[in-house]
């Protein structure tokens, strides 16, 4: 056993770090440690030392990040990626690879008759050992574009590589269609939004930027009776235009002498940077509309060409809004949830904010940020977080983070006591 195997579970500057020795995780949660530093329980020299527990580690971690988030940030931004959906039965990139691999394998009983997935990998010269569905789709697309859209024989039938690419796209679409959690299931999006949307009406609206295609934030908004400003019109069919992000919802009250606008509570902005399962582009006029269960949803699929896609509408508008909000030089925090820092255009915007915006803060919520094999960008951010209190990194699942995120006193609590006027007859 490696005695020096210390892992960070929280980093926020030189003097705000929490580490554990030889940690054991189950589904992203810390379940066992050997030691903890700093450990605050001190005993007398002649008394047996008190050994730290997992509860001690989590209490210390949550106490520190609660202190960070109790600051009354003016601009509160969320960046949600795949890790935010995994807690609600969403697929990881490795899951999608495994599903695609299983689709093209032909079995006789328990034995593999034909490994069609390997045939596809060989056809596009995919030689990496990594289960990277994005790299594979890029390889297929590159082969079709620069060589030829050749056929491969699978289970005795010839099939074009472009058709295989579309089939893998369908796998991604189908497996990202995550249903709303049941009433007895944990719904972190709902829990988190309910706390955030208690902010004062005078504060700027919370802005959620998500790389996920699913409708979990929309479901959560419905559950807590919140209003979503998502860039689409309030008329039917709901049609996209960037100007709708500049609209707001107010309650107008006043007299003939004075009239004031009163911004209502529970309103937030939702920007889906990579598209959505319920977006569709109309062929006749290129309008982007919201439609239930479209046949070809408008989504940026994981591959190298996704950076080109981001320059088309409505993705360009969403990305421009993301960059603009990161540049706000008046106390801005971006909370990244389950993002691996593998997207170049997203990383570039965050890098610029860290370099050019002195009031910008970054919080990274990721149960595996200190694991081996993370992206180079995430490793660089960890190194910066050790030196700077502008960056907070927390090893926490989204479900636990939503549960332990603090109720902030500067927020307004909308939990009013229910009044029940019973019309009972008098006994007299």
From TrEMBL:
It comes from the Bacteria. Pfam families: SIR2_2. This is SIR2 family protein.
